[in-house]
Amino acid sequence: MAGGVGSRFWPMSTPDYPKQFIDVLGCGRTLIQLTFDRFKGICPAENVWVVTSEKYAEEVKRQLPEVADDHILREPCRRNTAPCIAYVSWKIKSINPKANMVVTPSDHIVMDVKEFQRVIRSAMQFTNSSDAILTLGMKPTRPETGYGYIEADLSYPSTNNKEIYRVDSFKEKPDLATAERYVKKSSFYWNSGIFVWNVNTIVNALRVYQPSISKVFERLLPYYFSEKEQELINQEFPTCENISIDYAIMEKADEIFVFPADFGWSDLGTWGSLLANSSKDPHGNALIGKNIKMYESRNCVVHTTQEKKVVIQGLDGYIIAEKDDTLLICRLTEEQRIKEFSAE
Amino acid sequence: MAGGVGSRFWPMSTPDYPKQFIDVLGCGRTLIQLTFDRFKGICPAENVWVVTSEKYAEEVKRQLPEVADDHILREPCRRNTAPCIAYVSWKIKSINPKANMVVTPSDHIVMDVKEFQRVIRSAMQFTNSSDAILTLGMKPTRPETGYGYIEADLSYPSTNNKEIYRVDSFKEKPDLATAERYVKKSSFYWNSGIFVWNVNTIVNALRVYQPSISKVFERLLPYYFSEKEQELINQEFPTCENISIDYAIMEKADEIFVFPADFGWSDLGTWGSLLANSSKDPHGNALIGKNIKMYESRNCVVHTTQEKKVVIQGLDGYIIAEKDDTLLICRLTEEQRIKEFSAE
After folding, report:
1. Strand B165-171 vs strand B256-261: parallel, antiparallel, or unpaired?
2. Which residues of chain A have a CB within 8 Å of the CB of B331?
3. Tens-place pLDDT, residues B249-264
4. Where are the alpha helices (H) located in chain B, listed in sequence order?
5. How many Cβ atoms from other residues are within 10 Å of residue B336's Cβ?
6. Is the model's pLDDT at A344 over the cut of 70?
7. What span, in angstroms and rounded, lies between the C-alpha atoms of A124 and A38?
8. Cα dihedral B22→B24→B28→B33 (10° resolution)
9. Chain B CB contacts of A337 below 8 Å
10. Predicted complex: ipTM over 0.90
11. Nearest residue on chain B to A325, judged by CA atoms?
12. What is the pTM of this model?
């Protein structure tokens, strides 16, 4: 899933060029490339599918030349994750009804790729031989109020895989007191938005719980991989309800499983999370960019284009982000105002 | 005089493109253009001379198309103001021995141009009819330690011009306590580096006090305005002593005059002086650049290229300067370290 607009990372990320296409970590690979890389050895490139906006399709092709053009699905408008997943699921099912799928955002990070791959392999083994809807739960390390939570029923490990449990309930983004309560219990996990299932399972679940969305993609069955597909998608996709897969399926279906995992995951939803997930200098500064000099500065996250020379003196706890023709300097504690700052 | 390298204004000003060639105030004209403009109505363009580095000559021509190529003098190396003034003085004398001269840096600012022109006209009237060496003294508004001072003998106004006094002594850049003492007296003025004299006076003074420098330019007399001039200057100019006109003449000659004046002058030697001399928003921020938004910020000087969008939140008393591929963020109180910051 690569259709996000990444507005919270302005000015690094803009609707014209959102964060999945950016080398956010300064490691030489963009977030979508890192996501692609994480599946090497698990999923051959010819089985990778990308659902994105029409306007980002060329950038996806440029960044992921390994992915065939007809595996890049172009949404004419944003309708959240349920229509996105429905679209690609119907297409995959039309050519491989037995496919086993992993659904993942393209703009998250994973620090421990080896553990990620172990978890994904184990999860796919599980869904290969069951009709389970499986979500990955992340062991929380702090009372984060920016994530939804999954409560697992730890008394019911699945019979096929002792690491996997039934989901008791999904919890919306909590307030701080609630988040603190969640973190103290061992049965609460962050909802990562990474799902594993076989294609029949999700298609059937959508048919049951989202019949109107399902009808759209069912009707288009004769046209997938044809010249008419895009034209029809452009007509029909906008009629889908704007709804997340969590609301559309997860909170409705009876039998959902969670795989609690711990592979250094972050959705990189905020500059603060980038700071938390980056390697830092001895003063706690995350410096992304080749030529950044810090004097008497602490706890800053600096993100600049590679060629910039940057000298920063006397700042504590600031975001300094520069891209093309835009510069942001702002206290990390004020980053929820970035949408306000980025408005014209 | 347009040969300075402006290192204290890094990164806006660099040795490749120093501050005299920059629209420092964001008014649409560079400092050298503003300097040229100030003399309109006083000195016809064909009588303007620019002494600069060889590497800046093309930029001078571009910015001052009114100045003829053979009025742009190209120094092969930096030798401070005495050789610079000697070179142009010998050339001017060779074509007009009765010329009346104003010598001015090209990277200072003057807020009250009308008063500046009144003072210059009055000063030139004075030197037109006398062999006086005249310097403009600026009425100090604060105990500035970055300027040299001139002590006037206020009991001796000149007979020809009641605004002009004999100089008692030149004072080096003082420490703060001394500067505070100076400012309390009415007889101390900032040394502006703006001089008025007729060409014979300065040539004679140089012959007396700087014979070795004088010999260089005397020897070249047959070659000025010829094809050989630049080649010979390139050979001979580097042999001149590196010395300011203050040390070379002012502090040695007996009869020096000062014209105390008050026309909102600054040498723009520091970011702080730019802040002091710029128009400010209600929170004391000097914002130079078209698209700068400030939130909860005070007493900052922001200087960016015209096209940039800049958002700054939560800064008090900082320099934020961006040019091409370089960004500086630094407390104004630390700006004396800019040379350190700009080093590779």
Report:
1. antiparallel
2. 313-314
3. 998 998 899 999 999 9
4. 31-38, 57-63, 81-95, 113-128, 176-184, 199-209, 211-219, 229-236, 245, 271-277, 338-342
5. 11
6. no
7. 15
8. -60
9. 295, 313
10. no
11. B308
12. 0.82
